[in-house]
Amino acid sequence: MSIAPQPQSRPDRSRADRGPAPIVIPTTDVDRTDPDYRTWLKDAVRKVQADANRTADTHLLRFPLPEEWGIDLYLKDESTHPTGSLKHRLARSLFLYGLCNGWIRPGKPVIESSSGSTAVSEAYFASLIGVPFIAVMPATTSREKTRLIEFHGGTCHLVQDPRTVYEVSARLAAESGGHYMDQFTYAERATDWRGNNNIAESIYQQLRLERYPEPAWIVATAGTGGTSATIARYVHYMQYDTRICVPDPENSCFFDGWLTGDAGTNCETASRIEGIGRPRMEPSFLPGAIDRMMKVPDAASVAAVRALEAAIGRKAGGSTGTGLWSALKIVAEMVAEGRTGSVVTLLCDPGDRYLDKYYSDDWLASQGLDITPYAGTIDTFLATGTWSC
Ligand SMILES: Cc1ncc(COP(=O)(O)O)c(C=O)c1O
Q1: Mean of the per-residue pLDDT values for the chain?
Q2: Given the CA of residue 116, which atom of ligand 1 is nearest to it?
Q3: How many angstroms separate the CA atoms of 84 and 54, rounded?
């Protein structure tokens, strides 16, 4: 049996390395026995659940591949949630978790560190239950995301150094008596990983009538790591043979941390692929549950997201391109080995949020990114089945 590089036992680490201290909410600011508080809490939980009840499942799209390969490639289209990204699921889970834990209280703000998508969804849920919302985000976050957060009634607090989002969020929560949601710590545990129509269960349900209902691979990118953790845990829990691949963009430490097992791995420069790639090993990223990681050049992510539009007529964000590049590479390996089966990746959010980035040649030039060779690799692969990169 060949064993892929696995994380080694973790060195003893300081509290700073392990992320924030456990949440301590003052119990004196709200009288928990007050019937008005319990009425507010019940109503808030009902509103969040009612939102889920009104929501239809997201579609599993097919990416066209030559029939003779005997391989089916799908994209789980998470851009069709009411707030336009896979983060709608996470925001719902985090709000239910925070409400049921007594952490989110009437009149007190919810604060979140985010690269944007989670904050858009959380602003929506905060508005739904009537609490203020503040998003702490890197100043490079796309203008369209800040507009959407403000559209849902939230406030944006931009920081120049993306590595400071965690401490600034914690400070704002302490100063305002609010709750720091902390998706990077709580994403993996707030999500129902055994089922409850989570993203993994939904994928398997939707594949039931396909010719290869159990995918050979599911590819999921990582921001908090929560989505890949949920999918991987579900696969192991259900005893499927599916393997999980997490592609990582440039300027992110997840790949190196997964390879070396060093939970203290970090990275200085911010990721250019919004929503994924982090400067530290986030607590919600579970390396031990993942079978494989791939480092994906940013230019390849952009080439793939543009190839997606050519193939299915849909624009998507850069993280979708990172996942698609990786999924196509896995399909190429299957073709080369003569294997049939299915592969699933995610359409994480829509491209109209990034028209001035991944769809702008000026932006590509300003970043020194040349997508031509990667676009050539994809074109050649789709025409011949041969991967040249
Ligand atoms: C656009 C986008 N794609 C993918 C991801 C990755 O999801 P997760 O946080 O579950 O790892 C994120 C997370 O922020 C995102 O915003």
Answers
A1: 93
A2: 16
A3: 15
3-state secondary structure of 199: helix
308 with 314: CB under 8 angstroms? yes
- For residues 207, 314, 229, 198, the Cα torsion angle rounded to the nearest 10 degrees is -50
Coil vs helix vs strand at 125 = helix
Residue 144 Cα distances to 274, 343, 367, angstroms = 12, 31, 20
Q: Which structure tokens are listed for 23?
A: 């949440």
Nearest to 96 by CA among 71, 62, 125, 74: 125
Residues with C-beta less than 6 Å from any ligand 1 atom: 85, 87, 115, 117-118, 187, 221-227, 275-276, 317, 319, 348-349
DSSP state of 94: H
Question: Helix and strand tally (H, E) in the chain?
Answer: 13, 10
| pLDDT tens by residue, 288-319 | 999 999 999 999 999 999 999 999 999 999 99
Distance from CA of residue 86 to its chain's centroid? 7
State residue 87 phi and psi, 5-degree precision.
Answer: -75, -10
